[in-house]
Amino acid sequence: MAEEDDGAELNRLIEENDLTGIRLWLADHPPYLIADELARMDARTAIVPFRLLDKDRELEVFEELDPVHQQEILLGLRDSAFHELLEEMDPDDRARLIGEAPAKIATRALAGLSPAERKMTAALLGYPEESVGRYMTPETVILHRDLSVGRALEVVRAKSAEAETVYTLPVVADGRRFAGTVELSDLVRADDDTQLKDIVDVLVPRVRATEPAEDAARLMQEANLVALSVVDSEERFIGLLTFDDALELIEAADSEDIARQSGASPVAGHYVAASVFRLARARATWLLLLIVAATLTVNVMQAYEATLEQVTALALFVPMLTGTGGNVGSQSATAIVRALAVGEVRVRDLPGVAWKESRVGFLLGAMLACVALAIGSALVGPTIAAVVAASVICICIWAATIGSCMPLLARKAGVDPAVVSAPLVSTLVDATGLLIYFSIARMILHI
Q: Is-contact 172 186, C-beta < 8 A?
């Protein structure tokens, strides 16, 4: 509630053009809250408080914004402020911003950088999009394995101001070949005469720069790492993926999966600042595809029109059966998409997953069939009720199986598993569930 009041106060100060009040408000709030409020505003409004930030806090707030809002802020700055802000950014943050920016902004940004910063940024931009090379920081303190602990601490003190992090320190052998890492806490506790090679962790995970950034972030989460070492194809150390970047990667990946699981395209930026047209466009494509897919259900109903004419009571249970099948399939698909994301299942687990989910579907179907049998007997008699109960069991088994297999098959085909998620599975199960229902009805009722 306090944050809502704070946001309303800032908006009021901007509307009243109270520059002194805005400066006082900015001085009383941490960078992440300021960034959140700026992200809620349109670009023309957000630039007013941003220009009033103290120089030492301007970069902190800017780096809290996502690239979409960073681009909007940059467009509102004069050349001198534009280039100064980019020069002070961490290389990995700058590379992501330039990589996602339109060509006009990217060219202007690179042209204004100092030669050293431009070289670092260009090196990061040389890695594939969404690779860990785009997200790692090259600004690290590198220690040689032949150093003593005392000498290593001297190197850390001398170079720490230039590094993004010193909590995890990469250790290399000759030729900059990666030899492991050592934690700063271990260095501090060790005797000065101890050799670095005696305390280095040689089994610590590392990743190639061309590997997917999301996979690297998930690895950090699994291994409880503060930073993850990144190497090139020849096992030479080139940078670190830090925990703050890993958290942002996981958040972005989870947000994208949630959007796709709901049948929509991800929307970059803050929801409040997104236009109605932009939100509608993100959802329209999938809805059009799903409505086309839903015509399968219409075709099935039309094919069994004669059956419905003979036993009109069957029509009463169509919504219940399609809804149940869709829900079971959606639950299964969502569970597998999540398990894939966190590395709990792999494509090779497909047979085992299908077998497990089919049994889950049977148990759910048996439970729901008891309810359907009781309701159906009371409404239309035991014979139709038996048709509905048997259909519920078969539909639940089918829905759980197909819902679990589709994300795994999508991963094998190189498609984002979240794409074949709840809405699509639900739509397909609706049509196939009706085929199961009417087939069982014909067998039991002999029509």
A: no
Find out whether 218 and 342 touch, Cβ atoms under 8 Å.
yes
Q: How many CB atoms lie within 10 A of CB 107?
A: 12
Q: Among residues 74, 103, 130, which one ends one of the domains? A: 130
State the amino acid at position 408 in one-letter form. L
Residues of the chain with pLDDT below 70 are 1-6, 259-274, 279, 282-283, 285-287, 289-290, 293-294, 419-422
| Same domain (yes/no): 150, 125 | no
Report the C-alpha gap between 381 and 363 in whole angstroms.
Answer: 24
169: left (phi over 0), alpha (psi -120 to 50) or beta: beta
What pLDDT shows up at residue 315?
83
CA 84, CA 315: separation in Å to the nearest integer?
A: 69
**Nearest Cα to Cα of residue 421 among 256, 285, 214, 257:** 257
pLDDT at 1: 46
Residue 47 lies in a domain: yes
Paired sense of beta strands 168-172 and 227-231, if any:
unpaired
Query: Is residue 287 in a domain?
Result: yes
Q: Write the CA distances from 350 to 340, 353, 359, 405, integer angstroms.
A: 11, 5, 14, 7
The verdict on residue 121 lying in a domain is yes
Contact (Cβ atoms closer than 8 angstroms) between residue 136 and residue 230: yes
Cβ proximity of 43 and 75 under 8 Å: yes
Instruction: Return the CA Rg of the chain.
Output: 29
How does pLDDT run across 143-185, given as a tens digit for each residue? 999 999 999 999 999 999 888 889 999 999 999 999 999 999 9
Q: Which helix (H) or strand (E) holds 32?
A: helix 31-39
Query: Do 351 and 309 lie in a common domain?
Result: yes
CA–CA separation, 331 and 425 (whole Å) = 10
Q: Which helix (H) or strand (E) holds 300?
A: helix 276-303
CATH of the domain at 280: 1.10.357.20
Q: Are residues 35 and 115 in the same domain?
A: yes
Domain with 237, as residue range(s), is 143-242
